[in-house]
Amino acid sequence: MTSIFVAFQTKATWTPNIKLICAIIPLIGSLASTVVLQFKVFETWRLREEG
């Protein structure tokens, strides 16, 4: 997603805010995947559904 976002930027639109967004998008994704893996969300959900 970040690479697509960066691909559509031009020199005129490449501002510090855009740079910050490009750093935050992967950070959010990695934090979300860490939470899912650490708390074993999928295993807990499957266990609850199968009983």
List keywords for this structure.
51 residues, 3 helices, rod-shaped
What do these coordinates show?
With 51 residues, the chain is mainly α. Helices cover 76% and strands 0% of the residues. It contains 3 helices and no strands. It is rod-shaped and about 55 Å long.
Structural class: mainly alpha
Radius of gyration: 17 Å
The ordered string of helix (H) and strand (E) elements is HHH
Tally of helical segments: 3
> Approximately how much helix is present in the residues?
over 70%
Number of extended strands: 0
Shape: rod-shaped
Roughly what is the average pLDDT, rounded to an integer?
87
Strand content: under 5%
Largest sheet: none
Terminal residue distance:
37 Å
**Any low-confidence stretches, pLDDT <50, length ≥5?**
none
List the helices and strands and how they pair.
Blueprint: H1 2-7, H2 16-38, H3 41-50
Short account of what is shown:
The protein has 51 residues and is mainly α. It has helices spanning 2-7, 16-38, 41-50. The chain contains three helices and no strands.
